[in-house]
Write a structure and sequence with these properties.
364 residues, 36% helix, globular
């Protein structure tokens, strides 16, 4: 999970000094998708920068279908989507991955995708299947939530916040950093979470109070988490002084995975009453040069092989109901049972107005 995004969770791994796979191609980079005829054995996936998949899984796809995957990474999710809108009808690849429920309507309104019902869709959680026309296929979910620095709160003998309302309390003044809702997917998700929790009539008053309580706004997730948040490995190096940050429910397992030595307990926690559910989708691009390969890739992306590979590569949750989560997630992560969300059609109708209102309230 426009995301300077969930996509963000993978950026976390990179920020901790881990080199992640870029993709599968002759040189590990993506191709343009040009000169692909109907019989082409290469399928090009366009994605945001945080897409990641194991080599062995890509090889399994090639063995199963005969198609080789090339991955074209195109910046954060919002930037990648904008590039596809600019080239719609003559796309740079065959499948696009990474549009989420905060921006889905923008993609659908621009006619970016050709309808296709992926094989195995009946195994995918029904609540993620928001497009009845099957123009997109759900691939993963993630929860945008406030994370907290456990050591800070233990040292201060202060209980960490649990809910949106808690963040307004004087005890948490000048402790929270969030991302710009106009430029960052986590920032937008957090704004939408407050709208879901406070209502359309109450979110503006909420943000006025949050601003008065010293919330800090930065451009994107990486700056917020790795430079401003005292609980992250990056924040410790920079001397960060904000013990609350808008990030993901999957961030604590990542802090454990890349720590050396690995701690017995995650150094960060999740305020479970501050979450917003994000779903990411993939779709067959209209005008794709390799439709058959694109359809095969969409089928594969909701297979158990792909779904069970995602958590430790992109730090997101599978949408396939019987996919197994790794122990790292179940032991150190937080399962958010009923996070607030906003229907895609409501986001479509109000997103720009909400963002403008937020900017006038918080940034001025």
């Amino acid at each position: 999970m426009n995301t300077t995004t969930k996509y963000a969770a993978t950026a976390l791994a990179a920020a901790l000094g881990v080199t992640l796979l870029a993709g599968c191609g002759d040189d590990g980079s993506a191709g343009s998708g040009e000169s692909k005829g109907p019989a082409s054995k290469t399928v090009t996936l366009v994605s945001h920068d945080s897409f990641n998949v194991s080599d062995k899984v890509l090889k399994a796809f090639t063995k199963e279908t005969g198609y080789k995957v090339e991955i074209l990474k195109s910046g954060d999710a919002g930037a990648a989507l904008n590039q596809e809108i600019l080239t719609k009808g003559s796309p740079r690849g065959d499948v696009f991955f990474g549009v989420d429920n905060t921006l889905l309507s923008r993609a659908l309104d621009n006619g970016l995708f050709t309808a296709y019902e992926a094989k195995g869709l009946d195994t995918v959680a029904a609540d993620t299947q928001t497009d009845e026309k099957r123009r997109v296929t759900p691939v993963d979910t993630g929860d945008i939530c406030v994370n907290y620095d456990k050591k800070y709160f233990a040292d201060k003998k202060l209980a960490p916040p649990k809910t949106f309302e808690d963040l307004l309390k004087p005890a948490y003044k000048n402790l929270l950093v969030t991302e710009n809702a106009a430029s960052s997917s986590p920032g937008l998700g957090f704004l939408l979470g407050t709208i879901a929790a406070q209502g359309e009539d109450g979110y503006e008053a909420y943000w006025k109070k949050l601003k008065a309580n010293g919330v800090k706004v930065v451009d994107g997730w990486e700056q917020a988490y790795n430079e401003e948040f005292s609980g992250s490995a990056g924040g410790k190096k920079t001397g960060a002084d904000r013990p609350l940050v808008v990030s993901y429910a999957s961030s604590p397992p990542v802090e454990v995975l890349y720590a050396d030595p690995q701690p017995k307990e995650a150094p960060t926690g999740v305020a479970t009453g501050t979450c917003f559910r994000q779903t990411e989708y993939a779709g067959l691009l209209t005008g794709a040069k390799n439709e058959a390969g694109g359809k095969a890739l969409l089928d594969f992306m909701i297979s158990k092989t792909f779904q069970e590979d995602m958590p430790l590569n992109m730090f997101v949750n599978p949408v396939v109901k019987d996919a197994t989560l790794p122990e790292l997630f179940t032991k150190f992560g937080e399962e958010i049972d009923t996070p607030p969300t906003v229907a895609p059609e409501k986001i479509s109708a109000n997103r720009e107005q909400w963002i403008q209102s937020w900017q006038s309230l918080v940034l001025k």
